[in-house]
Backbone:
């Protein structure tokens, strides 16, 4: 069995969501069933990049995680693209046996059988600005696949007021899922330096929207990695 | 019974530590047994400000929390100064009966009987750069006061390499406490705009220190409120 891997990098810190600040090795798989208008990882999504994706066995992926982390257990984030396309169960199994923890970031469009083995599953239903549409039956299937032992949280990116309305409606449908909101980032070119004042303003806007609505449930968080490293890859 | 209160403000988001991003009303009490060299809340610490502190009953404090949050339950952060100096039990009791959650931020120098009623206790032992010295017997007493039902986490501010060594040693003494590191901020004048590039560089430095040491236990987080609002008060 082989996996298509876009990149494996770290340790760095997780920049967003429930594990924000956590030392993490990222495994970014190649291939996605979505193509969001503002995708910040097109190199893992657009099949034009597929010749840059390495074909690796699960053992080769695991060996690289061990190498990068120098054999010291930490959190591994499976991201993409959509990692749910591929069978990452053997990587998770080898890692957990060695004390590593596994998180996965996915839009919730494809339920992988291995979601139930994860420590943390982050489901990110894509808001209207993405140009994609959530199929809620599949999202439900993802929740079922996670089962009772995996921590499941929801993360929603908010670019505008329509997205904010989507976040509110989605949150109402899933009252029991911990919820994380983050402002969208349209400046995704790795070569263009990020304007931190603009990034801070976007966060402030989302905080104000949330508090003005007297909506005290979600946590509102930035993308720390963008604040530290801009859109540079591999950090 | 009366409480000395420096300010009550919010809802805003918690800017740091385990509850980062969480909509929160802050109750900042007046008075402190420490005086850290880089204190960012001298208006709640220095007794020169004591005439600005309001004397309020617990009911008056609770009424203000309810007013600010418009009766909608959220997280209340008890901070200071050192909130452990005063008896906040009646406020916590009224709030929890109405579904509010309570967190407290303290250096861990004074064990308050009400720590065990909190949802979350954040203990921040002060590193060498503060000019203060931790009395570990008191810190232990704080852990005991928290008891088995309160989530206890440790947060350490790191200004320099000595502070980093302190964080590592302290972490080793308390292997079971979740640990949050944050870079120090010497620009605490409310009138001076914060330079976000400098703030991002401080965070990057601390991330690099932590990862270079192959130390994968702590989460490394910035002060979000400083990134959004600078050192402005009441946000």
Residues:
């Amino acid at each position: 069995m082989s996996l298509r891997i876009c990149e494996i990098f770290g340790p760095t810190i997780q920049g967003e969501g429930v594990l924000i600040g956590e030392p993490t090795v990222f495994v970014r798989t190649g291939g996605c069933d979505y193509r969001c208008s503002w995708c910040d990882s097109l190199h893992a999504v657009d099949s034009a990049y597929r010749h840059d994706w390495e074909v690796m066995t699960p053992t080769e992926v695991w060996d690289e995680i061990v190498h990068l982390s120098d054999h010291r257990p930490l959190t591994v984030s499976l991201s993409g693209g959509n990692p749910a396309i591929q069978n990452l169960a053997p990587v998770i199994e080898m890692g957990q046996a060695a004390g590593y923890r596994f998180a996965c970031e996915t839009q919730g469009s494809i339920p992988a059988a291995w979601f139930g083995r994860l420590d943390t599953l982050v489901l990110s239903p894509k808001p209207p600005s993405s140009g994609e549409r959530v199929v809620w039956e599949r999202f439900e299937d993802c929740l079922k696949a996670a089962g009772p032992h995996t921590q499941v949280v929801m993360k929603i990116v908010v670019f505008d007021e329509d997205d904010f309305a989507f976040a509110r409606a989605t949150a109402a449908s899933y009252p029991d899922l911990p919820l994380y909101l983050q402002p969208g980032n349209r400046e995704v070119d790795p070569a263009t330096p990020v304007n931190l004042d603009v990034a801070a303003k976007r966060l402030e806007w989302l905080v104000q929207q949330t508090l003005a609505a007297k909506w005290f449930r979600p946590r509102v968080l930035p993308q720390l990695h963008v604040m530290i490293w801009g859109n540079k890859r591999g950090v």
Remarks:
- The two ends of chain B are 28 Å apart (CA to CA).
- The longest strand of chain B covers residues 3-13.
- The mean pLDDT of chain B is 95.
